[in-house]
Amino acid sequence: MTAHQDRQDRQDRQEHQGRQEQQEHGDTSLTRVEGPDKVTGRARYATDHHPAGTAYAWLVTASLARGVVDAVEDADALADPAVLAVITHRNAERLAPTDDPTLAVLQSARIAHHGQPVALVVAETPEAARAGARALRISCTREPHDVLLTADHPGLYTPEEANGGYPAERARGDFDNAYRTAPHQVDATYHLPPLHNHPMEPHAATAVWDGGRLTVYDASQGSGNSQENLSKLFGLRAEEILVVSEHVGGGFGSKGTTRAPTVLAALAARAVGRPVQLCLARAQLADLVGHRSPTVQRVRIGADTTGRISALAHEVATRSSTLREFVEQAAVPARMMYAAPHSRTVHRVARLDVPTPSWMRAPGECPGMFALESAMDELALACGLDPVELRIRNEPAFDPDSGKPFSSRRLVECLREGARRFGWADRDPRPGVRRDGRLLLGTGVAASTYPVLVGPATAEAHARPDGSFLLRVNATDIGTGARTALVRIAADALRVAPGRVELRIGRSDLPKAPLAGGSSGTASWGWAVHRACEELRTALAEHGGRPPSDGLTRHADTAEEVGSTGQEYARHAFGAQFAEVQVDQDTAEVRVRRLLGVFAAGRVINPLAARSQLTGAMIMGLSMALLEHSTTDPSFGGHVERDLAAYHVAAHADVTAVDAHWIDDPDPHLNPMGSKGIGELGIVGTAAAISNAVHHATGIRVRELPIRPESLIGR
Ligand code: MOS
């Protein structure tokens, strides 16, 4: 076969497969509307902008965990005529205070953590900037530091709130008494390491001042946030700042809040009077753009002889930096997952000399459900019950935390449908008895959940005389397919073919809308797009179906409707994940043979992209279970794994059969589309399903991720 024939053949096969998948999902899917722009290089990211005269910055960061910068000698660096400036806390312009101390860059001599910005070298080229950075001589006074989280760290305190505005502590009934008297008890403590997002596109910004006006091309999940933060820091009116985040190469939460490079680029551009571009090196991401905070989680469950849970406690210890309180809300899902009449959930946090943790895909739910769903597996064994059946038995009729009914909760259907598709029925529950040659085999299950979040948004729909439409909304597509989903929503509401809809997103001068985060983007932006299109369709009908010669425009603002819709319901998405693993009896290498997720996430808007989001998140969960791990450096603070050679993520060879399905989950209590978010749901529960399968294969319960050969050998 010639290379050409081979290529043709492969292409035919792929197209055939694509068509089959589309048929299976009853489809209607749109392929990425920005696909051609991305594959032809027309799509521009933050560092693809090089306005005339652009200078390039290199960031120098602290190499110790706590101390003071005494001096930065820059004479050697500045001796190179290509070096334009060395900016440190001594000469940087004073920024106005904000509520996010991580953005007060180069404002003080204090070093609060390893990797904190200490100096910025600006030069004609990135190479000259980097050479200039190497030529700096920085002296610091080192102070004693404290960077390691332990379950009994003396600095642990109970904050008022955990992230997301959830109360840090909740109790109902009398946990201690109910637990003490329960015939079946599980008391287990789980340890999760710090984890990093590592999007393909590092955090970067290109800043341009034009008189008093500032434009920033920003790698961000929400240009509106950056506009707001820059406005506070530089004392400008919002209209004086334009932030463009047209294409973003992944974020997973790490670009959900404004980051240091955005502020540094703006600050440097003003200092040198030229546009400035700053792109972080991958090694700098580990300490500067957040991480999933490590957690120590104790779960206690008491159940009666039939497996009904009477008592459930989930106690989380986590850490934050000295700069800012950030409390991973890992005990929150335990409040609503199961019908436990007596329950206590609490978060405690220690403020250490570490980089500030931040958002990482399904913050709270992802680490919390690893612990809870592992403990449920331990309980199933203690009670002699099938783990699917155990979960079904503890299904609550209403949200046990708020007392509200669920808007929809199809977890039991997900478990049953997943069990059917996976072939769970004839599972032998005994651990460590299945073999395929040298391989031990096992299967495991875990539940998924993620809250349905939504924010107010505005959008504008315009009908052109030629029959096409222009939609404007400041949504952000971080690679999820948000553009495509919005075109879909607009086309449906206008009742026209998607090809007639042009969409503009990713700029702060578009109608105001929230960031891409909390799996809330499509619901929030889509709601406003839907309403604007509905109004436009009505207006068009009044004009006899044709817009006047200058077109017709309608604007929507969902603030009121979002605030008053569905508040009487507990709103969450659900899912069930099933894993099959093999464990090599000699090397203890664990590989995932099959991963299946069945989800209930409201109406699925664009099946092709939804499937990609769900399987993508499951793969990230697989990665968390077996590979991902950051080590806090006890000597210098910060994280040891600073590149993708050391911070392992799942590669193609680690991912064999991963499949996501969903069940019909019409939910009228959410938004006009009936959709629940799908960006984060898929990572929740995956690691527990895999760990539970490892136990089934080996009889060894691993309570610390990732599961490595040394987790299993010698135990
Ligand atoms: Mo996501 S961690 O809410 O961007």
Topology, please?
Blueprint: H1 3-24, H2 35-40, E1 55-61, E2 67-73, H3 75-78, E3 83-88, E4 110-111, E5 117-123, H4 126-135, E6 137-142, E7 169-172, H5 175-180, E8 184-192, E9 204-210, E10 213-218, H6 223-234, E11 241-244, H7 260-272, E12 276-279, H8 282-288, E13 295-303, E14 309-321, E15 342-352, H9 365-383, H10 387-393, H11 411-422, E16 434-436, E17 439-451, E18 458-463, E19 469-472, H12 482-494, E20 501-504, H13 521-542, E21 552-557, H14 559-564, E22 572-584, E23 590-600, H15 607-626, E24 657-662, H16 686-698, H17 709-712
Helix pairs in contact: 9-16, 12-13, 15-16
The structure holds dioxothiomolybdenum(VI) ion.
